[in-house]
Design a protein that fits this description.
alpha+beta; Beta-lactamase; 8-stranded mixed beta sheet; two-stranded antiparallel ribbon; 12 strands; 23% strand
Length: 280
C-alpha cells in the first residue's frame, strides 16, 4: 500500500474523495479506478499553478490523481512526443540507433544549442526540435500514421504535415492516456522489439539515487490556448515502476523550471521517493 506522506502522514485510502472507473475518449486505454488525492492539491496551491497530476499505483492498478476532470482533457503533446518519435524511428529503421548523428538543417534556431548536428541521445536532453523534425521526416507520413495507430497514442491524428503535428496539432493526448502509454512502454506491452524499448528507456533517464531512478520528458504546447507545460515519465523505486504525467497552464517560459520539481513533490506525497534513504 502506498502511503500519502502529507503533513498528517496518513494512509492513501483515507485521503481519497472518490473512486470511479474511467475510459479514454477513444475507449482504447485500459479501464482503471481513478482516485482523487486531496494532498496533491496542496502542491499545486503552494506553487500557484493550475494543472493535473496522474500516477499509476502498480500494486492496485489504480490512478492517483489531482483534478480528475482535467486529467482526461486532451492537449497537444509537444516535446513529450520525442519519446514516441524515438520509438517509431528505431522500430521502422528510419534511424539506425540513438547515437546516429542527424542533421539539424543549417537554419538559425530559437535556441542556439539546437544549431548542431547530433544524435537522438543528445537531442532529447536539450529537446532539440529540428533534429526530431528530421527524425519525423525520415519516418514519413504513412509509417508515422500506421505506428501511431499501432501504439494507440492519443488521438493518433497527424494532419498533413509530418514534422509539426505534435507541436501544432492535430495530435492530442490526455494525462491519463500518457500514463497508460508509459505503463505499456515500461511493462513491455507495446508491439515493439525489446531492443527498441530499451534504447529509448536509456535516453530518457534523468537521474538515479541508489535503487531509485527518474525517467521523463518535458514539453511546452505553445499552440494550445492556454499554453500547456508537460512533464511525463516514470519513477522506479525498489523495482516497482510508477508511470506519471503532469500538465499545467504555462503562459510563459518562466514557469518551465517548476514542472519537474512539482512532479517530484507529487510523487513524494504519494510515497514515491527519489532519494536513497541509505545515502549520506
Amino acid at each position: 500500500m502506498i502511503l500519502v506522506n502529507g503533513h498528517d502522514s496518513f494512509r492513501f485510502k483515507a485521503c481519497c474523495l472518490v473512486s470511479f472507473f474511467i475510459l479514454s475518449a477513444l475507449g482504447r486505454a485500459h479501464a482503471r479506478p481513478i482516485e482523487e488525492v486531496p494532498a496533491l492539491s496542496g502542491a499545486f496551491i503552494q506553487e500557484k499553478l493550475t494543472g493535473t497530476f496522474v500516477m499509476l499505483d502498480p500494486e492496485r492498478n489504480t490512478l492517483l490523481v489531482h483534478d480528475a476532470q482535467r486529467a482526461q482533457v486532451r492537449f497537444i503533446p509537444a516535446s513529450t512526443f520525442k519519446i514516441v518519435n524515438s520509438l517509431i524511428a528505431l522500430d521502422c529503421g528510419a534511424v539506425k540507433s540513438v547515437d546516429e548523428i542527424l542533421p539539424y538543417g543549417g537554419k538559425p534556431q530559437m535556441i542556439k544549442a539546437w544549431e548542431h548536428d547530433m544524435s537522438m541521445r543528445d537531442a532529447i536532453k536539450i529537446s532539440n526540435v529540428p533534429i526530431y523534425q528530421e527524425v519525423a521526416r525520415r519516418v514519413g507520413m504513412q509509417r508515422m500514421r500506421t505506428a501511431l495507430e499501432k501504439l494507440e497514442y492519443g488521438t493518433c491524428e497527424t494532419g498533413d504535415t509530418v514534422d509539426t503535428f505534435w507541436l501544432q496539432g492535430p495530435l492530442r493526448i490526455s494525462a491519463v492516456e500518457q500514463v497508460d502509454f508509459l505503463k505499456r512502454l515500461t511493462s513491455g506491452e507495446l508491439p515493439l522489439a525489446p531492443g527498441v524499448v530499451d534504447a529509448v528507456r536509456g535516453i530518457t533517464l534523468l537521474e538515479t539515487s541508489g535503487s531509485s531512478s527518474l525517467h521523463g520528458k518535458t514539453g511546452w504546447a505553445t499552440a494550445s490556448s492556454p499554453k500547456v507545460g508537460w512533464f511525463v515519465g516514470w519513477a522506479e523505486q525498489n523495482r516497482k515502476i510508477y508511470p506519471f504525467s503532469l500538465n499545467i497552464d504555462m503562459p510563459d517560459e518562466q514557469l518551465a523550471a517548476r514542472r519537474i520539481p512539482l512532479a517530484k513533490e507529487c510523487l513524494r506525497i504519494l510515497g514515491v521517493s527519489l532519494t536513497d534513504p541509505n545515502a549520506r
